[in-house]
Amino acid sequence: MPDFRDCILETPRLTLRCVQEADAGQISALMVPEISRWLASWPLPYTEEKAFARIVRDREAAQAGNMLPLVVVERETGAVVGYFSVFRDADDGRRAGAGYWLGLKAHGKGYAREMGPVLLAAAFEMLDVGVIEAGAQPENAASFGVMRSWGMSQAGDRCHYASARERDELCRYFQITRATFESVAV
Q1: Which of 37, 45, 65, 134 has its CA 20 to 30 A from that of 162?
Q2: How confident is the model at residue 1, as a pLDDT?
């Protein structure tokens, strides 16, 4: 069984590595209302204790080979600036979902676009899935820009339970197949 807790990916400006318990304080500090409002499962206040519990859970999923839970670290500063994860669908092991966010100071730097090809290549190979999807609220144009830059195409709208707000929310989903990714990555 694969264990992804030692996963490290690099781009010219970033290191994506499996989240560690020691990251809880930095992750908690980055989770502000302007970020949480777009995220289904990152409620406020996002305390260090909540971050720690999520890290433990996500590392267990990484150990089981079902998730790549990665913090985004600026190589120049060494600071954690975001959290990206790709996780195997519990109902269909050939599909995966992607979730991501960057702290406010990392917005507008092209980081999400930069890491897309590296993240998707690793996720397709390591999770051995055929499709990766991501979703966002219809008002989240920036997220749709990221998804399109990753080569994803719109797959439809559906409701998703947002535990952060304890309600169902309409989300727009985009996806990319492994075949499509490999055909444009060559």
Answers
A1: 65
A2: 56
